[in-house]
Design goal:
alpha+beta; Aminopeptidase; 5-stranded mixed beta sheet
């Protein structure tokens, strides 16, 4: 079994999930509305912390949002901080909601 992280959208649970070795390592919860996705909470299990999994998960989730043409509302502090550190993703956030991003 591969230990390479696998990231999938689980729309039934309203979250993107990251699995390592077949085990759920973490997730990024969201609320989906027409044309937008609101990220509300990101969590990585303590047993998987320190491996950069949250960053990989958020990047994949944001790439999926971009591919689907969704505006991103980063209510989750981790997602918001990640976008602030990666300015090439700020365009996903509606212009009127970008206040506070340090670019």
């Amino acid at each position: 079994m591969s230990t390479e992280p696998a990231i999938t959208d689980n729309p039934d649970a309203d979250r993107f999930e990251i699995h390592v070795g077949g085990e759920l390592a973490g997730f990024a919860e969201y609320k989906l509305k027409t044309g937008q996705i609101s990220f509300t909470h990101t969590e990585i299990d303590d047993g998987f912390s320190g491996q950069g999994l949250a960053s990989r998960l958020v990047r994949a989730a944001l790439d999926e949002a971009r591919g689907r043409g969704l505006a991103v509302l980063p209510f989750c502090p981790y997602v918001r901080g990640w976008i602030a550190k990666h300015p090439d993703y700020v365009d996903l956030v509606p212009a009127e909601r970008r206040a506070g991003f340090e670019l």
